[in-house]
Amino acid sequence: MAVDVERADSGRDVPLAVTLEAAGTRTVLQLPVGVESAELTVDVPEPKLWWPTGYGEPALYAVHVQLHADGVQPTLDTWSKRLGFRTVELDTRRDEVGHAFTFVINGRRIFVKGANWI
C-alpha cells in the first residue's frame, strides 16, 4: 500500500512528519524543508481479499494517515478510510459470438448485475 505525499506549502520552513497506519503496521516518513513530495509505503503480506456481494466476504482494512508539523503533536490533518485489496480485469477475448465482456475479480469470473459503462 502506498501514500503519495505532496507538500502544498513549498515556501514554508517547517519540516513535516507523515504517519501511515494500516493492517497492524505503523510507518513514519519525515519530510524535511525543501522536499516537496515523497511516497510512504506499508507492506501488507498476504492480505485477505475483498469480494463483491455474493462471492465472499468483503475484507476491509482500516487505514489512517496523519500529518504533523515538526513530527510532533498537534496533528495538522488526518485521513481515515476502510480499504479492500482486490484485482480487477476485463476479459474481452474473442469468443464464439464476437468478444467476451466479463469482469474477473481476484482471478474469478464474475457476473456483474446492472449496467457497465466503460
Automatic annotation (TrEMBL):
GO molecular function per UniProt: beta-mannosidase activity
Keywords from the UniProt entry: Glycosidase, Hydrolase
Domain Glycoside hydrolase family 2 immunoglobulin-like beta-sandwich: 36-86
GO annotation terms (biological process): carbohydrate metabolic process; glycoprotein catabolic process
UniProt family annotation: Belongs to the glycosyl hydrolase 2 family.
PANTHER family: BETA-MANNOSIDASE (PTHR43730)
Stated name of the protein: CAZy families GH2 protein
Organism: uncultured Thermobifida sp
Taxonomic lineage of the native organism: Bacteria, Bacillati, Actinomycetota, Actinomycetes, Streptosporangiales
